UniProtKB/TrEMBL annotation:
Residues 17-55 form the Competence protein CoiA-like N-terminal domain. Residues 59-193 form the Competence protein CoiA nuclease-like domain. This is Competence protein. InterPro entries: CoiA-like_N, CoiA_nuc, Competence-induced_CoiA. It comes from Lactiplantibacillus pentosus (Lactobacillus pentosus).
Length: 363
């Protein structure tokens, strides 16, 4: 922890603390000692055997340093900043609390340790319920190459200018990294754009006002072949999602290899599903086959949504999930239209039966 209470009940930052003064933990009121050396960032620690529930011990060098750096950056940018402020109504203690005149207070969490999605959701919703905004900034343990299975993805946040994004803080350079417009295309690595900012050179406003030029990633030329190879491999390896899809296909008289080409994702999509997009499109294929030739727009949307819902990953930090889900439905509707699976007929859609047949196996 960076802040402790002195005998006069004043909160003191470890960087300004006196060595001979007895300090106590603002969380549990237990005694703490000052740790300050030439390498370590100054901080307070409980004595051995403390059972403090508020500050977990083993706070890493990265965590205390990052908190101090972030606080300094926001303060230098003109904000009023409180480190480790105890928010009693919430029973939460954000790493940083940033106050502004115009927007709701902002809680900043610099997360360097593992956190379950359940805890993450509880903490995030606690802030939202009480009118705080919250920003999750991730430390080193999360900064490995971003993959569709990365633990970092549960921290996905949304911003109109940055799309689905993640924030990282690098302690060595005191810099912020924004990984924005994160997209996924089945069988290909995640795509994203990266922007970083050194806190020593630019104020917080530069980050808040950042508007990237969005470059639309294009799938590789050989995507379809690549995809078929990946599908074959996935089936050989009995990957759960593909086994389920294969079963779904069997029950309807076909196989994965006989799914029509339009079910194979060709453009990068939002990384919001727990399974490949093929699973969703495969199910849409299966369900549309059972529909009459003409269906209403509402019926189509309900069908797409029903098939999507069980496949959505649990997201703890996405406040505008409804907007994103509508984006997904709109994208798949447009796709079905462009691939001539459905055709507009005033307010209704006509289904193209030719696109709803099992094809000859492709692999
Ligand atoms: Zn304590």
């Amino acid at each position: 922890m960076l802040i402790a209470q002195d005998p006069h009940h004043q909160l003191v930052n470890a960087s300004q603390a006196g060595r001979q003064i007895p300090y106590i933990c603002p969380g549990c009121q237990g005694p703490v000692r000052l740790k300050r050396g030439s390498v370590m960032t100054a901080h307070f620690a409980h004595f051995q055997g403390s059972d403090c529930q508020v500050f977990s011990e083993g706070e890493t060098h990265e965590h205390v340093t990052g908190k101090q750096q972030l606080a300094a950056w926001f303060a230098a940018s003109g904000y009023s900043v409180q480190l480790e402020a105890g928010l009693t109504v919430l029973h939460q203690r954000p790493d940083l609390l940033v106050q502004t005149d115009v927007t709701p207070p902002l809680a900043i969490e610099f997360q360097c340790s593992p956190l379950s999605v359940t805890r993450l959701a509880a903490r995030t919703q606690g802030y939202w319920r009480h009118g705080y905004q919250v920003l999750w900034i991730l430390g080193q343990p999360y900064q490995r190459k971003l993959r569709s299975t990365s633990k970092a993805l549960k921290f996905l946040q949304y911003h109109p200018h940055w799309g689905v994004h993640l924030l990282f803080w690098q302690v060595e350079t005191a810099s912020l990294q924004l990984i924005h417009h994160i997209l996924t295309l089945d069988a290909e690595p995640l795509t994203y754009q990266r922007w970083s900012l050194k806190s020593a050179r630019q104020p917080v406003a530069a980050f808040q006002q950042f508007q990237p030029i969005v470059s639309n990633p294009t799938p590789p030329e050989e995507h379809l072949e690549h995809y078929h190879r990946q599908l074959l491999l996935a089936r050989l390896r009995h990957q759960h999602a593909f086994d389920d899809l294969q079963r779904y296909c069997y029950q309807r008289g076909g196989t994965i290899a006989q799914l029509p080409d339009w079910t194979i994702p060709r453009v990068p999509e939002l990384p919001l599903l727990t399974v490949p997009y093929l699973v969703w499109y495969g199910h849409v294929f299966g369900q549309l086959r059972q529909e009459p030739t003409v269906i209403t727009h509402e019926r189509l949307q309900a069908l797409l949504w029903t098939e999507l819902l069980p496949l959505l990953a649990r997201q703890a930090c996405l406040r505008d999930q409804g907007t994103l889900h509508r984006q997904l439905l709109l994208a798949v509707t447009t796709r079905l239209d462009q691939q001539h699976v459905i055709q507009r007929r005033r307010r209704d859609w006509t289904l193209n039966q030719a696109a709803l047949k099992w094809e000859r196996p492709k692999f």
